[in-house]
Amino acid sequence: MTTIGFIGLGNMGAPMAGNLVKKGFTVRGFDLVPANLEAGVTRGVIAAKSSADAVATADVVVTMLPAGRHVLSVYGDTLKAAKLGTLFIDSSTIDVASARTAHEQASSHKMLSLDAPVSGGVGGAEAATLTFMAGGTDAAFAKAKPVIEAMAKKIVHCGAAGSGQAAKICNNMILGISMIAVAEGFALAEKLGLDKQALFDVASTSSGQCWAMTSYCPVPGPVPASPANNGYKPGFASALMLKDLSLAQEAAQTAGASTPLGALAAQLYRMHSGAGGADADFSSIITMIRGSKD
Ligand code: NAD
What is the pTM of this model? Predict the structure, then answer.
């Protein structure tokens, strides 16, 4: 049976590693924070002494880390410790440039590699219903598929190295912009005396329809399961939306792409996060747009 080395057992990594254990994989994990390593162990992960120790006997390595610098640092420690031909899957959300560097480093050590960021949040990580967006060679994708399937509802091979990260930040830039648009629509309706349910009934079945409205409606009532009904408890925190919008801006600048609304969305989420909204669901941006907390 395939042995997995899993590095980064935080909010996402621990339940993802736990799902690999449930599907019968042997998982050797490592995290710098002892309590997070322990969270993995309670899900059946075997505790390694270091990231190099976690990958030494692995056929496949999965990393789930905060940012590009963490991934490149872990690759520096692990690429020389793993068996030749090991597959490295990075599921962290990181900048496209670091993702491509990670692929180059893996290739120069004669390893296979895939960037495979996810959407679906902690709930999707627990339920093994994440969407994976993968970038890399066909050979790497084919080897990764049975492993990813243990954690996923949907897997899309988006193209060559870095394409998974590119898909993730383009999607989340669309989401950030559309949430602000929905919030502005509902805030304007309030000022015009238009009932929120009436606006929802029209817009959710008309040309204004979008996922931000129908799944994460930023006002309580029309979508009972949306975080607005639960004090804006995330869901998907504004700080994570700001991270993804900032990565999109970094990529746009490097690629010379024009993303004026993406830039504005990043600026608005930076203001909202700085004003105390960082840990609230990203739909709470409506409270800043309205200028009130109710
Ligand atoms: P987290 O901070 O809970 O987990 C990251 C873990 O990496 C931590 O436990 C940390 O101790 C560990 N770590 C950092 N450097 C390390 C190193 N050198 N060696 C070993 N362990 C190290 O973050 P998270 O919420 O699990 O998110 C992980 C990644 O997934 C991020 O890139 C995030 O943007 C992305 N993501 C998160 C969500 C979400 O809803 N939380 C959704 C989609 C994508």
Answer: 0.94
112, 26: one domain: yes
122 C-beta closer than 6 A to ligand 1: yes
CATH number at residue 218: 1.10.1040.10
- Amino acid identity for residue 286 in this structure: I
Structural domain ending residue among the three candidates 105, 132, 160:
160
Instruction: Compute the distance from residue 209 Cα to the ligand 1 centre, in Å.
Output: 32
Active site annotation includes 168: yes
pLDDT tens figures, 34-55 = 999 999 999 999 999 999 999 9
Closest C-alpha residue for ligand 1 atom 25: 11
Domain housing 92: 3-160
Dump pLDDT digits (tens) for 126-180.
999 999 999 999 999 999 999 999 999 999 999 999 999 999 999 999 999 999 9
Nearest CA among 87, 92, 97, 95 for reference residue 137: 87
Cβ atoms < 10 Å from Cβ of 116 = 32
**284 CA distance to ligand 1 middle (Å):** 23
At 130, list the tokens: 């994440």
